[in-house]
Amino acid sequence: MGGFITRWMIAGSGPYAEAAVRFFTSLRDEGFVYSTEQVQNECEFSYLLYVGSLPFEQQQQAPEEELHHFLNQWMPKCKESPANAITLLLARPFLPGTVQRITQLFRDRNIEISVASFPLLGLKMAAGQSIEWNPPAFIIGTTEEGKTLKHLRRELVRSGCPVMLMSPREAEMLNYLYINESTNRAHIQQLAGLPDLPKYDWVTILRGLGLHPQIGQQFFCADDVPAGWICRMVEKHVVMDNQSKPVIAIWQAGGTCVGEIRNRLEQMGCQVQIYCPETKTKRMTGLDLSLGKWQTLNAAQALVIVERHKEFSQLMLAEWETHLQGKHSFPLIIDCCGLYEPEEITTIGCRYISFGREIFETF
């Protein structure tokens, strides 16, 4: 395991701060300052890991008030050392939007400091009341780009742990779920389906929690996606934008969940065209399955992929482009299974919505 080459400082006290000190100290010979008083007296370091003194499980306003108290005492020192580039890493879980608020606080005071969410994955209770930190990976929640981020990534990679980047909002939610041990399937499905909850990219969050490139896509399946969510997406992004009767294509894999979705869409005034690779030219009761896969898209304003099937998941972008070429308006793709990467679909001109992910549009 390689050592860090720049100076890290840790602000906080208690078992979490001590665990971070032990971990970083094990990576190099120099000690790490972690008491608030010492950190406040200097700015000659590159990375400040803020842990605080309150229990991580405490999610009320008190932790952010403690953070602001610390920053108000430390920022005057930063103004005295403007040449030193510092990245503030918020390790403890905060209320959503804290990274954005602290970033704006520095901007208002003309202090150039990068701020990122930095969840401490791998915390475990040890003997007595002590905490051990053996990170399986580092999560960086930031919107920053450029040299500062590259240096931080290079620094963290030296530890031998993988590094994953995501937006501050997703990292803050990940931190909350991890610290509160709320990573069970049912709870995350419930959060992902809440219409009033700010939109999070749940696939990214799940990847961060499991650090497996496919964990997010495999986490949700057709049975997890409520028909009401599908109909809300169609109504919001298709029905409200069309004066005439919209055509909705559905790709299914032979399951029985399509009937309810079709009925509800038809009640909304939609015409539904269904494709199923398992019964390509057959008719099932109440369902016309005679259309081919691409035929269902000929006049469609939206495509709903209801179930996972290799015929859907193995489609290449070139194949999409070939069959969508010449369409006056590109369809909206509502993907209930997370089969595709949003950025790839938007490159071919489609809007993309996937259950548990933010909405991606092309302009």
What is the second-level CATH architecture of the largest domain? 3-Layer(aba) Sandwich
CATH class of the largest domain: Alpha Beta
The total number of structural domains is: 2
The 3D shape can be described as elongated
* Beta strand count: 15
Q: Strand-and-helix sequence, N→C?
A: EHHEHEHEEEEHEHHHHHEHEEEEHHEHE
- Separate helix tally: 14
Considering DSSP H and I runs of 4 or more, what fraction of the residues is helical? Answer: 25-40%
CATH topology of the largest domain: Rossmann fold
Mean pLDDT: 78
Instruction: Trace the largest sheet across and list its strands.
Output: 10-9-13-14-15
Radius of gyration: 25 Å
Strand-residue proportion: 15-25%
Unreliable segments of 5+ consecutive residues: 1-5
What's a quick, concise take on this entry?
The protein has 363 residues and is an alpha/beta fold. The protein is 36% helix and 17% strand. It has two domains: 8-172, NAD(P)-binding Rossmann-like Domain (Rossmann fold, 3-Layer(aba) Sandwich); 222-354, NAD(P)-binding Rossmann-like Domain (Rossmann fold, 3-Layer(aba) Sandwich).
Q: How would you describe the overall organization of this protein?
A:
By secondary structure, the chain is α/β, with parallel strands linked by helices. The protein has two domains: 8-172, NAD(P)-binding Rossmann-like Domain (Rossmann fold, 3-Layer(aba) Sandwich); 222-354, Rossmann fold (3-Layer(aba) Sandwich). It contains 14 helices and 15 strands. The protein has helices at 15-25, 36-40, 62-80, 98-108, 147-157, 168-179, 185-192, 202-210, 215-219, 227-237, 258-267, 310-313, 317-324, 342-346; strands at 8-12, 47-52, 86-90, 113-117, 123-125, 131-133, 138-141, 163-166, 247-251, 271-275, 283-284, 287-288, 302-305, 332-335, 351-354. The strands form five sheets. The chain has a five-stranded parallel sheet. A four-stranded parallel sheet has the order 1-2-3-4, sandwiched between helices. Strands 5-6 form a two-stranded antiparallel sheet. Strand 3, helix 4 (98-108) and strand 4 form a beta-alpha-beta unit. Helix 6 (168-179) packs across helix 8 and helix 10 packs parallel to helix 11 (258-267). The protein is elongated, with a radius of gyration of 25 Å.
